[in-house]
Amino acid sequence: MKESEILIVGAGPSGLVLALWLHACGVTPRIVDAAPGPGTTSRALAVQARTLELYRQLDLAQPVVDAGHPIEFFNLWAEGEHRARIPLGAIGAGLTPYPFFFIYPQDRHERLLVDRLAAAGIEVERNVSLTGFQDRGGHVEATLVDARGAEERCAARWLVGCDGARSKVREIMDVGFPGGTYRQVFYVADIEGDSPALNGELNLDLDESDLLAVFATAPKGRGRLVGTVREDRAEHADQLQFSDVSQRAIDNLMISVRMVNWFSTYRVHHRVADHFRRGRAFLVGDAGHIHSPAGGQGMNTGIGDAINLAWKLAAVAKGQAPEELLDSYEAERLPFARRLVHTTDRAFSFLTADGPVAEIVRTGVVPRIMPLVAKLPGAREFLFRTISQTLVHYRTAPLNGGSAGKVHGGDRLPWIQKDGGDNFAPLPEPGWQVHVYGQARPDIVTWCALHGVTLRQFEWNAACAAAGLAEHAVYLLRPDTYVGLAAGSPSIEVMDDYLRANALRL
């Protein structure tokens, strides 16, 4: 029976990132996927700033930025008229090294991740499906079947389902997936053509009956259309062609389509699994939560799941933490998934609401108010922080504690730009680190040396204070760069108490 530390089922972005992060932490996983190869369609487009910050830990951020496309402007259309052009640009300037909204199609994204895995000596086993598994207490025994029907029994200490909304892993775990399905049928099409809306920017048409968003996938002439299917054709959505979609919004944006490279219809669901862990099996990404595409959150949330789980699995596998650490994965990611689904549900319901009042608000009020609101610095910052996922925190989870300044255990550390660099510079490999903004006490220096933890000291200045940091405080960062412990009055005793409470051996 073939054995591995961790068996990953599913090689979409979440599964691939999980495998890459595990490898960076010193654990080699096995990863299988039922598909014959990586995706060839640009299903997810947006790569958020927090994802890029985490990618930077694996030297992945710059290749994505170099190959992607920032969105500089957001255009609002209503009933065939261009109503507003809202500048976005570096909307998150001063908050992150990646202060923009960014497009990098999923097909290219997956190829990059697969290539990085291959360079690390890890190949995705294609045409391999999971048909069942049993949790034996100390390990999982799984049954895999290849394209020829050959069956294999294998063992792993843990199994992770990254196998999407129809997850076989979730089904075998017998975990509920409550939620619902919106009544509208939507389409997605990657096209080439001519239009004022194929201008390298984000365009949204708010019609009284139709909805159409145009996401640029190139500076000009190419984009993704996301819109509604005509109600009289929705009953047989799986048989539709591009000619069957609602034409009114396309005409409103004066889109002349030369080529349709990909077309698909779908219904939008909003569901969150009851649990992300059961014994030695875990759910990551769409296997655990699905929601509307509003805000470009889905793939980024799955990647966040993967990184959160990866460093914890690696720590337990290497004997640096007890298995109880793995409970913190669900404690941190499940509440966030529920909040996210609630938020995207509200936004999506507003965009697709019926009735005369909803139509007046959507086509009349919003195009007039949004450009004014978008000029307010506070509104722009809140919008960016929310969509970029830099607001995500784990303050209430048991793994995190303390506070120093305005920063609490479980927070994303504030970004501070320094001469020639910043405080987010990655370690050679993901690991724990201590940040001090000011001067570290001698006993903290000794503690870090004793535990093999990198100590980084930054000169205190006004930017540190403005970001909410406390002078001379200790911020113990987890491998995913969230704050595990914030100590305004640091001491060896405080640091040791944190390790003891969580049974960590750094």
UniProtKB/TrEMBL annotation:
GO molecular function: monooxygenase activity
InterPro entries: FAD-bd, FAD/NAD-bd_sf, RIFMO-like
Keywords: FAD, Flavoprotein, Monooxygenase, Oxidoreductase
One matching Pfam family: FAD_binding_3
Residue intervals of the FAD-binding domain: 4-343
Cofactor(s) the protein requires to work: FAD
Protein name: FAD-dependent monooxygenase
Organism placement in taxonomy: Bacteria, Pseudomonadati, Pseudomonadota, Betaproteobacteria, Burkholderiales
